[in-house]
Amino acid sequence: MTKKTALVTGITGQDGAYITELLLAKGYDVHGVKRRSSSFNTARVDRFYQDPLLNEDVRFFMHYGDMTDSTNLIRLIQEVQPTEIYNLAAQSHVQVSFETPEYTANADAVGTLRILEAIRILNMEQTTRFYQASTSELFGATPPPQNETTPFYPRSPYAVAKLYGYWITVNYREAYGMHASNGILFNHESPLRGETFVTRKITRAVAAIHLGLQDRLLIGNLGARRDWGHARDYVEGMWRILQQDEPGDFVLGTGESASVRDFVNASFAAVDQRIEWRGTGLDETGVDPASGRVLVAVDPKYFRPTEVDHLLADPTKAREVLGWTPKVTLAEMVREMVASDLDTVAAERERVQRDDW
Ligand code: NDP
Ligand code: GDR
């Protein structure tokens, strides 16, 4: 059997960390692409580092690279000779994509093309399987539930860029017979989620408010509904997609949705804090019923020019073809995230106090 070697773009992100854990456990050599940064950006994967001086059998490697640099991507793929590529790198923040639309298109849309072209230039169409990190944002304004046959209606520069990534993956599969697949993944979160996505922003704020370090949580659209699952379950789905004999496109989600308001309630409940909602629209507040103190307030700065109101997966195909079902419930995930943020925020406070001399 040929040795399995994975190349993971976006290895320093949330999903990059979870898929690295999974692939190393399955015996793969894992090569990650990281960007040059003026500050450390590898915190999520540092625990996988193996010192070549102390290890004979190093299986985790990092390379500098960027989705906007074709020559770099071609060289890396030539050097690594991956049997599987997981293309997870992206400017992944929807609201930021309204501020940086051209860069988002370059990294997320043309970046996907660059990898597919690299595979073709290197004549690796039959030896390398390709996974594209597609997204439920493709469905955008199309009402739920959404599955593989639901029409796309993207609502942000991010989603439009990802639409190109989706279709160029389908096109290279059909044109060149490549094993190239899309995972159309609904929102998935974890303690490793970036701090500016709504779930992590909420769990961090709840921890900081609970520890007396923050007054209140400022939030945008409380009514938006998402189908939230746990990242660890979703990277298992990515891997299963690439193990199929035939490539294809798969929706991964839980089949249940909740509102941002529900997520706030569940997060405060994890520290035994009940929230009473008062007012409507921009004046809506979340209040501690015992003291009357405002713990949550709406700030219109977090509203998006065009919003995605309701995403809810119909994951039937993934269940039937991949045998994939998510294991972690929303309530379990919220508790895990809040517990982790209580530790993180407490450690930060301790560090600040130690340095305060
Ligand atoms: P993150 O934002 O946590 O990670 C994105 C990764 O891409 C980071 O490693 C980042 O590097 C890297 N990256 C960004 N721009 C470039 C670039 N120009 N060149 C090289 N690397 C770059 O995202 P997630 O882990 O949450 O998501 C992984 C993928 O899945 C993304 O493509 C995302 O769009 C998609 N997706 C995510 C979903 C989710 O709910 N999490 C749902 C559906 C799709 P750095 O650390 O240096 O910033
Ligand atoms: P999303 O995730 O846009 O779905 O994209 P995000 O957590 O940013 O927003 C979810 C919903 O919450 C609303 N919201 C807020 N969002 C943020 N970030 N900050 C706030 O203060 C806030 N208040 C309310 C948003 O308006 C939205 O409706 C994520 C990313 O991981 C994408 O890369 C991925 O493709 C999709 O999930 C599936």
Task: Please explain how this structure is put together.
The protein is of the alpha/beta class and 357 residues long. It has ten helices and 15 strands. The strands form four sheets. Strands 3-2-1-4-5-6-11 form a seven-stranded parallel sheet, with helices on both faces. A four-stranded mixed sheet has the order 8-15-14-13. Strand 5 (129-135), helix 5 and strand 6 form a beta-alpha-beta unit. The longest helix has 26 residues, at 330-355. The structure holds NADPH dihydro-nicotinamide-adenine-dinucleotide phosphate (NDP) and guanosine-5'-diphosphate-rhamnose. Guanosine-5'-diphosphate-rhamnose binds next to helix 3 and helix 6.
Q: Give the strand line-up of the largest sheet.
A: 3-2-1-4-5-6-11
Architecture (CATH level 2) name of the largest domain? 3-Layer(aba) Sandwich
Count up the domains.
2
Class per helix and strand makeup: alpha/beta
* CATH class categorisation of the largest domain: Alpha Beta
Q: What spatial form do the alpha-carbon principal axes imply?
A: globular
Total number of beta strands = 15
| Overall helicity | 25-40%
| Sequence stretches where pLDDT stays below 50 over 5 or more residues | none
Query: What does the average pLDDT come to?
Result: 97
CATH topology of the largest domain: Rossmann fold
Global Rg = 21 Å
Largest sheet: 7 strands, parallel
